[in-house]
Every structure is written in C-alpha cells, then in structure tokens.
C-alpha cells in the first residue's frame, strides 16, 4: 500500500526539493533543476526572494489574518489600488480570492447577479472555447473545454456553450484574416441558435494556457468577440489567471490587443508562489449594480487576508521596481529565437507559438499533415521526463479531443537572465536529441 496518505494523482514517487534560489531548485539527492515552467506557471519572481520574505514577515509580525467583515484591511486596499492602476483605471473594482478557479467562479457569479439585478434573469448561460481551461470548481469547470476533465461532471456543471476559437496552426482557410472571419461567423451562428438574450458572458483566455499549448488569439478575433458581446448585451470575461501580472510582457495580456474586458480573473503570478492570491477585477458600474441589489452573494474565508495581500503587493512592487516587464520582452525574444531554431532542427516540432515568457511547443508525427502522435506514445510525458533528466522542468500536456496533440509550455520565471535563458535552451536541446 502507498505509505503516503496524499492522493493527488497516480504516478511514481517523486523526489523532494530541499532548497531553491532564483530559477534553480535542488532536490534531496542533490540534483539541480532549472525551473523552465515557474512551478505551475506561478513562481514568476523565482525562488528565495528576500524582499518578498521580508514583506511577508513584516505582515506576519503585525497580524496574519483578520476577517473582512470585521476589520479594515490596509494591505487589501493597497493591493486593490495597485491592480486598478495596472489596468489604467479601466477596471476599477477588485474582489480578492485565493486561486484562479475562485477568480473565474467569482466572475461567473458576479455576471449572473448583475443580470438578475438588471431584470434579465434569463441570461444564465456562458460561452467559452474548446479547448480551454478555466479551473476545477464546478462553475469554472462548466466553462472549461477539455473533455477528460469535464467527463465525470457534465451533467452537474453549468454546461456552457463551447465554440471553436482561431487555430492559426491547423486552419485550412485561405489566410489568417479569412480564418478569423469564419470563426467569428460560426460563433455568431452558434450564439444566435442558442438565443443571444440567454447569454450572460463570453469567457476567454487571451492566450491559451496549458490546455492548448499557448494557442494564440489575435487582435481581429478579440475585437470581433468584443463587438459580439456589445451587440448581444453580454459581458466579456477574460481569464488572465495564467497570462496576468506580466507573463506576456504586459501587465495583462488584453493590453497587447487594445480590447478591454468587463471582468478579469487573475491569480497564479500575483502570489508568485509565495502565497495563494487571486483577484477578480471588474467594471465599476457592474459592481455598483450588484451592490445596490443587496450585495455580492459570494466569498471565501481566506480571501484577501492581510498576509495574502501584503504578499501580492510585494510582488507587484518588486516587478515595478525592477522593470520586470522589459526583461520579459528581452528574454522572450531570445526564447522565441531559440525555440524556433529547435523547430528548424527537429521536424517533429510542429509549432512554436506564444508571447513574452509564455511559449508553447507542439509536437507532431508529421509536420506536413500536422497529424498528432498517437496518444499511446505519450510524447508529452516523455519529453518532460527527458528534460528532467537534463535538469530542466517544463510543463507538458496533451490536448485530446482530436484538436491538437502533444505539447509543452516553456514559461520560466519572469526574472530569468540571458545566461539562464541560454542554459534553458541548451538543456532543452539536449533533451530533444
Ligand atoms: N484559468 C487558467 C487559464 C489557468 O491556467 C488555471 C490554472 N492552471 C486556472 C484558471 C485555475 O487556477 P487554480 O489552479 O489556481 O485554481
């Protein structure tokens, strides 16, 4: 019998990390790993940071936890102001949570309450993409487009309308412009068939995450979705759980595209692996409508506690102080060039896509037909195991559903320097030969 009482996932016994510093971790056998995926794309500032530890200790010395209905919470107010500032005031209200799933869940529930408050209770459906990943709670899972995760729960989730987003790698339209136009036209048809006045919101990751291997959207597509939402009177929710807080080279990925959401969920990088912190950012009038109708009927015990918010604030301030966004842009260019060189060398690297320090590499059996490897080959797991042998951590997944295949994400900490970026690429190349 397995001696451990933990049950996360079946798999071999894993080594334990004894210490970590910057972009490196060492396990209890002394092996060193370069963190090419920031843990779960969360340890954005690397490990062992004195400034974050000092800020957390200072807050711990004052008070770790107070409850939001009983006391004012200065770190929460300060972090909320900082986040609003990062959107240049486009999203003026903040609701704290402790995870990405909770942030998405909160967005869905706020959207629903908004329409109930406005006398449009028939707006109770959501539209989202397949493939996509929005979280593991039942609401967030309901808008997730990823069959293996959905399968046991399809009859008890909210079951959103799933539509295809653009696929710039596999489409067979005449060019990208016509592809986006066709995808938008198909989306319009699907919404018309479902009944536009039943839709509360469209939920999107502005750059696909682990479920798609960083599948990209583009400005024309996002502008088209924004226009559809405006035309049909529903909200646009962006899931920036993974892309938010600098991962793509902007504070939020939507800022690359000039398309503003009504609600935005973020998490992972906000606590940067030091503490769980997530946030829902919202347009002020949406929040005011809900608050005027009796308040938001939602909340979690640990959400926005002083220690969480002091950590998030220390993360944002460190990033501002150190100009981390310009590092993301510079290192992102190096990573892109290196990954594309690997693509030129290895024919089974079908596609390299991404932005900033969020890169997806898709592996194919045939680069001409773009046919994925048969599932039983488990290439996604094999390449990650080979990389680990070379002392490199990457984030492997397979998109089933016949929509793509094996891929992995390369998402190092946003503070990685040029030498370690080169080292990452060297280790990856050694794993691939
Ligand atoms: N949305 C996206 C885009 C994510 O990548 C994730 C986490 N992988 C989530 C939501 C859920 O976040 P969490 O695991 O913190 O609940």
What does this structure look like?
This protein is α/β, with parallel strands linked by helices and 433 residues long. It has 15 helices and 16 strands. The protein has helices spanning 38-41, 50-62, 74-86, 100-117, 138-142, 147-150, 176-194, 219-232, 254-257, 268-271, 284-292, 306-322, 324-345, 379-389, 418-432; strands at residues 17-21, 24-27, 32-35, 93-97, 125-129, 161-163, 199-204, 235-240, 263-266, 278-282, 349-355, 358-366, 371-372, 392-393, 395-398, 406-410. Helix 2 (50-62) packs antiparallel against helix 12. The longest helix has 22 residues, at 324-345. The chain is globular, with a radius of gyration of 21 Å. 4'-deoxy-4'-aminopyridoxal-5'-phosphate is lined by residues 99-101, 104, 133-136, 205, 209-210, 239, 241-242, 267. InterPro entries: Aminotrans_3, Aminotrans_3_PPA_site, PyrdxlP-dep_Trfase, PyrdxlP-dep_Trfase_major, PyrdxlP-dep_Trfase_small.
